[in-house]
Structure formats: C-alpha cells, structure tokens
Design brief:
Radius of gyration: 23 Å
CATH superfamily of the largest domain: MFS general substrate transporter like domains
Number of domains: 3
Number of strands: 0
Number of helices: 22
Shape: globular
Distance between the termini: 21 Å
Helix content: over 70%
Order of helices and strands: HHHHHHHHHHHHHHHHHHHHHH
CATH class of the largest domain: Mainly Alpha
CATH architecture of the largest domain: Up-down Bundle
Amino acid sequence: MSQSKTNYGALTVLISVFFFWGFIAAGNSIFIPFCKTYFKLDQFQSLLIDFAFYFAYYIGALLLFMYGTMRRRDLVGSWGYKNTIVYGLLFSALGAGAMIISVYYDQFVGMLFGLFIVALGFSLQQTAANPFMIALGDESTGSNRISLGGGINSLGTTIAPLIVGLILFGSTKVTDEMKENLSLEKVIYLYAFVGMLFLGVALLFSLSKRLPSGKQEVDETKNQSEPSTKALAALLIMTGLLITCFAPVLNSYRTEESKKVVQLQDHYESLKKHGATTLVLEQKQQEIDVLRKPLEKRRLWWLGGGLLVVLLGIPLAYGRARKQKKAWGAMQYPQLSLGMLAIFIYVGVEVTIGSNLGELLRQEEFGYEYWEITPFVALFWGSLMVGRWVSAIHVFDLSKQMKNILTVIVPLVAFSLVLLFSYLAGHQVEHLYPYVICVLILTAAFHVSQNKPALTLMVFGILGAISAMIGVFGSGMLAIYGLMGAGLFCSIMWPCIFSLSLAGTGVYRTQGSAFLIMMILGGAIIPPVQGKLMDIVSAQHSFLLAVACFLYIAFFAFYVGKMLKRQGASLDD
C-alpha cells in the first residue's frame, strides 16, 4: 500500500478524526464540573463521564482482540482501514444522537451512554487511523504524518475547553441571573453539529475513490504459533473483576442511606442560604457525616479494589506467562507488561489532572467559580500541545543547531498561541504570563534528555512528580502552575512508553500495540478513584495520586531502559 507521493486530499480528511478525539476528550474537562453543579452530583459521579468515555476505548479494543483470537482473523485488516474508520464514524454519530436525546430529557445516565457510544466509535477509528496515515504515502515518511495528526489532536484538546465553556456558559462573565438559569440546551446544538460532521466525513471516506481500502490480504495472526487464548482469558477476568468492583459503588447511590444523605445535604444548603446560625449548621453537618463517612469509605474501598485489579492483575498475568509462554502472546515480554501498566497510569494521570483541576480551583482556598476555570483547563491541555510540538521537531531532517534553536522558539510560539486562544475567547490571561518559566523548564528538559526515549521519559516522569508535588503542597497560583505544568511533562510520554514497551517483541509487536491501546482504560479508572478521594479528603491532597503515577513512569523508564540495554534490544525492532 506504499505510495511514492502523499495523498494530501485524503490526508486532510483523515486528520479531522484526530481533531475529534482531542476535542471531545478535553471538552469533557469543562463538561464534568458543569454537570456536577447542574445535576447536583458528587465528584465521583461527575467523573463517570470519564469512566464511560475511556472504558469504551478499552471495550472496543478488547472486542477486536477477542474476535481476532477466537476467529484467528484480523477484523480491521479484513474490513480495511477505510471502512473501519467509516464504521467508527457512524458509531460516533449514533452516540451523538443518543447525547442529543439524553440532553433534551436532562438524563445524565443517558448522556453517559451517548458518550460511551461516541468513544466506542473513536476506538475503531484510532485502531485504523495510524496505519492508514502510513498507507497514504511513502512508508519512510509515515511517522511525519502521524506526528502531524498528533499535532492536530493537541490543537483540538487546547481549544475544546474554551469552546465548550462558551457553549455552556454563553459568556466569560456570568451574572447571578445567568447562574440560576444555566441550561444544557446548547449542548444539543454542539452534538448535532458534531454528529453531522461525523456523518459528513464518513460519507466523504466511503465515496472517495482515491482512498486506498487498506485491506490486508494476509491474516497476520497465522504468523503466530497459536492464538493468545490465555492472555484473552486474563483480560476477560480482569474486566469481570472491574465490573464487580464498580457495580456496588454505582448501586450505593440508589440505596435509602444515600438518598437520606442527599436529603440532609439539601436541607443543610437551605439552612445556609436562609442564614442559619453556625451552631445549627454544625449540628446538621455532624448528622450528615454520621451517615456519609462510612458510606464513602465503603465506596473508596471498592474503587481501590478496582484499581488494584489492574495494578496487580497485569503483573500476575506476566508471571504466569513467564513460566509458560504458550498461548500468552505478547504478555510474555516484561517490557510489554510493565508498559501496559505505564500506559494505564500515564493516561490516568493525564485525564485525572485535566478533569479534577476544575474542582480544585472551586475550593475555598482558590475561590474560582466553575465558569472561571476554563483558561486554566485550556492551558493544561495546551501544555500537552506545547510539548508535542517541540517533540515533532526531531521528526524532520534538520541540523543539530537548527533543532536547538527551534527547541527554544517552538514552545514559546505554542504557549503564545494558547494564550491567544484564551484571549480571543474573552478570558483574562495576564495572570498566566509567569507560566512561561514552566515552558522554559520544559525546553531545558528536552536538551538534557537528548531525544532518547528512556532518558526522556525518566526526566519527564521525575519533573512531572515534582510539578504535581508543587500542586499538592503549594498555594495560590504556584500550586495551579504546578498542576498545569504536569501537562508539559505528560506531552511526550505516550510515544516514549510505546517505543520502550514494543522494543524486542518481534512478531508480537502488533498484538503488543493492541494491548497498549487497551490500557487507555486508565482514563476510566484513575479519575473516579481520585474523585472519590476528593469527596473524602482535601481536594489538593488527593493529587498525591498523580505524584505516585509520575514516580511509576520514571521507574518504568529507568528499569526498562536498563533491561533493554542488557538485552541489546533496539527500539526499532
């Protein structure tokens, strides 16, 4: 399917799906705090938006792997990249329709279902889009096109919070009257527009005769000695245990005990609004805590159990695979198993900071209203764009001197664009100017790491942990800069973890890639766990979970880098 010339017309259309992924995912960061207030949810319930969205990615990838294992046939290869993306777009359009209906009837559960279907379509699109990008031109320049797609994805994550914020609030200056009349009505128009785009792009893809089908005549699974049935069984068991852990938490919100807590909290807010004395409010709060605290602790235990299912399940599966490699496939490789955890944790920490940052800013010690958090969330996601644009410099054949110059210029230009987008959206940006210091630290980190995957990931993991610790133990704008700065150090983690995890996996490289894609599951599990921590402990201290995540990523980079060096494995294997 290699072509001597790049199909720029097809490439332009294909890049649009990269934008969709970033736009919807980052837009959820503003949607979450809005829904928390609008539907009167706790932080965990609001973060079910992330759970539904990222769990769909996992389920989609798992279903494709299950089909390939049981039928010994690559479904995406038989459909072709082109048709797979078309089917994914149609799924996403169906999800947009479900969102519209659910928003119309003010049904939060229905909205979760709609987001699940949208993301299920995204999982199909993402499975096919990267190899399709390579198929649209010379294979030797395929990585350039994929990097371009990543840049467009980051553009979507940067502007989404600003656009979604304007759609939800209508203005950057919300009056008391507007606060009382907030509505989801405009979300209908947003998803109607997005749904029409999905259908329009699907139509363009299906009718285009210039696009290669991307069908694979050779069944790649036949190149393996046997289907990876034991790996599939381990993943299915892990999925069942995750559902077992989350189900009691979800059901607990329907119990009489939970309903009583909600009634008491409503009564407390009513008393506070009507000027009740401090003594009366304290007595009512004690009455609430007697019921709420034991309930919240039980919920946290179950959620912690769900997190441990993944953190312990994958190493246990590798332990079994190491003793008996037959039918375990890519899981027999330690770098791949550790990499699955690293991707799980990386996606989890990136999403949990983006999704929980808004709630932190609404705490009394920071004092922002939920319509004022937009530029901070936009800068967090924009920070990923800053780092990825710098990383893309190394894709091009430039002199070392020119690369060094661009490593200084590009992040400053990208940072300026993020500020410009916020300014054009009507937000004040002067208080974000000092953040340029964080950008300069990023520049220095790129120079130190020398574009070596293991060293880069270790340096960025350590800096991410330090940045998150500043967010936890700092105060005021310093703490906010710390948490936003974590986005800078998340920016390059995905490709570094992928390259380290797949090095030396041989014929299992494609399957290993599928396992890593499944671990987007981290975005479904880690944010709700932190959300429940925020319901129980201080919001700021809950970000210690992010510190732990970055420390594991730094450990992964150090350990796997040393291991691959001993094995003599090349990152290009």
